[in-house]
Amino acid sequence: MRAGAGTDAGERAKGERPALRVVTETDSYRQVPYDVEIEQVLIGAVLVNNSVLECISATLQPEHFFDPLHQRVLKAMLAMHGERVIDPLTLAAAMKADPAWAELQCAPHAYLAGLAAACPAMPNVRDYARILRDLAQRRDLIRIGEGIVNSAYDGQIEAPLHEQVSRAETALREIEFHSASLPTVSASSFDGEPVPEREEVVEGLVPKRAVTGLSGDGGTGKSLLALQLAVAIQRGTNWLGRVVFERGPVLYLSAEDDLKEVHRRLYAILAGEQATFTELAGLHIVPLVGEESILGKPDSDGSVSPTALFHALESRIKTLRPVLVILDTLSDVFGGDENIRVQSRQFVSLFRRLCVRFDTTVLLLAHPSLYGINSGSGTSGSTGWSNSLRSRLYLERVKGKDNSEDDPDARILRCKKANYGPTGTEIHLRWQRGTFVPTTHGDGSAFVAANARADRVFLDMLGSYTEEGRNVGPSTGASFAPNMFSNDRRAAG
Predict the structure, then answer these.
(1) Under a CB-based contact definition with an 8 Å cutoff, are residues 217 and 396 in contact?
(2) Sign of CA dihedral 56, 59, 61, 62
(3) Is the peptide bond before 383 cis (omega within 30 degrees of 0)?
(4) CA–CA separation, 391 vs 416, rounded Å?
(5) Residues 405/447, Cβ–Cβ less than 8 Å
(6) Element (DSSP H or E) covering residue 298
(7) Residue 470 near residue 483 (C-beta atoms within 8 A)
(8) How many Å is the Cα radius of gyration of the chain?
(9) pLDDT in tens, the chain (493 residues)
């Protein structure tokens, strides 16, 4: 950023200091990166509400400000915080001996009062603080880079090169070290504030501003289920009988099914709801089948870092502000080792930051391991995945004790983890004409599966009896089929 971008001294409010402009000696068209206006906004925000200082103090230090006066203003504020009220009069009194005030054409308290009056009603102070810290770090990079260049020009040819490289690496590590921040908030700030309600996208299943996992073996229908949720958010309807509290744009990244398959599935969903594609203007599909789809992968030290595609996704989220982001599937977007706990947690953290920053929710689709299928846990890889997710859903087929699948259209959606609600919730579903529908009563899927199995056994036995020449009929009596079959050991109960 360039200082005073879009403004000049004549446009500033009375009493406001003109932004300083610094040009490097070697390059007349380049300017040192800084933004005095943001510095003024943050100072004004603290003067309006002293608790803002605690929000930004973990991110910003006085040296992160470019303007020397603003550096000393922040230093004075930090010294006063918790001891007395910080307002234009008390701050000006605390800094009355500062010689920088002589540069102003107004009284110190008038300048500070002007900053407070010009401060936006709801400044995004944390983002502003990060911007100023980043600008300060860029200035440090410029300083180090110029030092490296000058050292390379002026150094003696016999001087060991590795010493210069080592000094540069040490300086760069210092910048990285000081870039870390630890935001803290005093619990006393909650005093008198209303207790915020916990928000959900889907009642009891998908919490808002968090990452929820939806796992299921290949072909069980988790992608279809996710698309049904996307449609419900678009149309303002329920999902599997559960209330959907949010309505708005949805971003669906599909790395497993191509655009034609997504089209077919959406058509079936809309047909079942007697709706049209015109109602899905806010459903945005990112087809990545056959394309590069990795969003996070380990760098040289093993830490998971965002890829260029992740940053492109972040930019799209910033523009669309979707209610829900669907990632289909984990194995296509994660470039690390799913068995390494640190990598799994770091990958999920990438998306948790997006959730908080852009007020969105992420649904991460995944395949369970063979152990996850056999154990019924629905998990795969490190426990870091399940521990990092705020909610975890598992879609599975309905199977009997002998592992037989009597009704291939029956499914159960189980809530395996819920940080903010009860676990163990089950929703019984059946696939009908291209969509999943909840059954009408609690154990409906089991009931349907039992009926399907009974029908299959009945037809098998009818065939056997016919081959054996044993006549059975539909009327009660000695040849009544159900009676005869029920007494036959082949009926298997």
Answers:
(1) yes
(2) negative
(3) no
(4) 8
(5) no
(6) strand 296-298
(7) no
(8) 32
(9) 334 433 333 333 334 443 433 334 444 457 888 899 999 999 999 999 888 888 888 788 898 999 999 999 999 999 898 788 999 999 999 998 888 787 777 888 899 999 998 888 766 788 888 889 889 888 888 888 888 888 777 766 666 666 777 777 777 777 665 555 556 667 887 888 888 888 999 988 999 999 999 999 888 999 999 999 999 999 999 999 899 999 999 999 999 999 999 999 999 999 999 999 999 999 999 999 999 999 999 988 788 989 999 999 999 999 999 999 999 999 999 999 999 999 999 999 999 989 988 999 999 999 998 888 877 788 888 888 888 899 999 999 988 777 777 788 999 999 998 887 777 889 999 999 899 999 854 444 444 555 666 777 788 888 888 888 888 888 767 778 887 887 776 765 5
- Residue 120 structure tokens: 């936006």
Structure tokens at 51: 């608790």
Contact between residue 41 and residue 119 where contact means Cβ atoms under 8 Å apart:
yes
For CA atoms 461, 465, 466, 468, the dihedral sign is positive
Which of the 8 DSSP states describes residue 368?
P
Amino acid symbol at 450: A
Tokens standing for 89?
């009069």
> Which residue type is seen at 407?
D
CA distance 225 to 248: 18
Residues 6+ apart with CB under 8 A from 394: 214, 215, 216, 368, 377, 378, 413, 414, 416
Q: CB-side exposure of 369: number of CA atoms within 13 Å?
A: 11
Token duo for residue 44 = 């004004």
How many CA atoms within 13 Å lie on the side-chain side of 479?
10
Separation CA 222–CA 224 (nearest Å): 5
Instruction: DSSP letter for 384, please.
Output: H
Task: Please choose, from the candidates 362, 361, 363, 397, the residue with its C-alpha nearest in 3D space to the C-alpha of residue 378.
Answer: 397
CB hemisphere CA count around 266 (13 angstroms):
23
Beta strands in 341-444 (DSSP E): 361-366, 391-397, 410-418, 426-432, 435-438
Helical H runs in 84-124? 88-94, 108-118
Which residues touch 193 (CB under 8 Å, ≥6 apart)? none
Rounded to an integer, what is the distance from CA 136 to the centroid of its chain?
28
End-to-end CA distance of the chain: 77
d(CA 308, CA 296): 9
Q: Which residue in 332, 328, 309 sits closest to 230, CA to CA?
A: 328
At residue 137, φ and ψ (nearest 5 deg) are -70, -35
What tokens were used for 208?
Answer: 């808002």
Q: What does the alpha-carbon distance between residue 151 and residue 145 come to, in Å, rounded to a whole number?
A: 10
CB proximity list for 397: less than 8 A, separation 6 or greater: 217, 220, 405, 408, 410, 411
Judge whether 230 and 324 are in contact, CB under 8 Å: yes
What type of residue sits at position 448? V
Give the Cα separation of 286 and 329 in Å (integer). Answer: 13
